[in-house]
Amino acid sequence: MSSPSGLAALALMAVTLQASAQEFRFTGMASTKDGTGIYEEHHQVDGTCTGGVFRPQQHRVAYYKPGEEASFAYKTLDYSASVLRPGVDFIQPTFAEQMQVNYPEPETLLIEWQTPQGDSKRFEVAYPPDTVVDSGFDNFVRQNWQSVVAGESVEFRFLGPTRGEHYGFVLERAENSRLNADHIVQIRPTGMVLRFLVEPIVLGYSDSGALSDYLGLTNIRKNRDENHTAHIRYSVDTYPNCELTP
To answer: Which of 50, 84, 230, 242 could form a disulfide with 136 if both were Cys (CB 3.0 to 4.6 A apart)?
Structure first.
């Protein structure tokens, strides 16, 4: 039988663990270049405060057309193994599209993609430690926050899931007249060929490390053959009770 002091210690531990659970909520409003609203993103990130810094664990995103109550797409991300390479489950029922990214073995990821054209594609990809997947780019920026603030460049690999490959990218300071943010950076491909094919993604961040702007190609489809390019403006609904950046 446990002693009173032992029970008290367990109770205190349970309270401490419960108190460390945190929630980070934010909303994104996506619009075209002329300001026409396209959709909204509602984000809920559950995590913990570790060493005074927020560590995400589970992330849910619901997408809504303006004025509609039912979501038209949704995504879940699991950061339990890595904040840079989450497990991904993304569904766009309008186009019968679904994509999953899982990690069956160390240093190997598996992409399963049901395309809008009705095909099924499967890629098994070996990756190096500096690879970033999907929304892991947001955590990558915060992990390198001191470099971002100092204007330094950071190279990494970024997964192109529809191609089943990762590519060289660089995170660097940028300027853009459409963004009014405390810090503006971009992620762009470093390979000569890809630089001609892929436009940089421009990101705005607040001094606290919260994403305020996203300007570039999105994962939401405009039609079966192309995705929306949008300016997404983010606002924070609920901050965790710890810092977003180290």
So the answer is: 84
Short-list 203, 204, 123, CA closest to 166: 123
The span from the CA of 205 to the CA of 181, in Å, is 6
Backbone angles phi, psi at 138, to 5 degrees: -65, -45
- Which helix (H) or strand (E) segment is 149 a member of? helix 145-150
What are phi and psi for residue 175, nearest 5 degrees? -130, 140
Extract the tokens encoding 9: 């210690």
Residue 41, both tokens: 């993103």
CA distance 209 to 187: 16
Q: List the domain boundaries for the chain.
A: 22-238
If you ran DSSP here, which 8-state letter would residue 199 be given? P
- Report the predicted TM-score, pTM, of the whole model to 2 decimal places: 0.90
User: What Å distances lie between residue 85 and 92, 97, 223, CA to CA?
Assistant: 21, 21, 28
User: Please, are residues 128 and 157 in contact by the beta-carbon 8 Å criterion?
Assistant: yes
Contact present, 41 and 66 (Cβ < 8 Å) = no
The 10s digit of each residue's pLDDT in 178-218 is 999 999 999 999 987 677 678 999 999 999 999 999 999 99
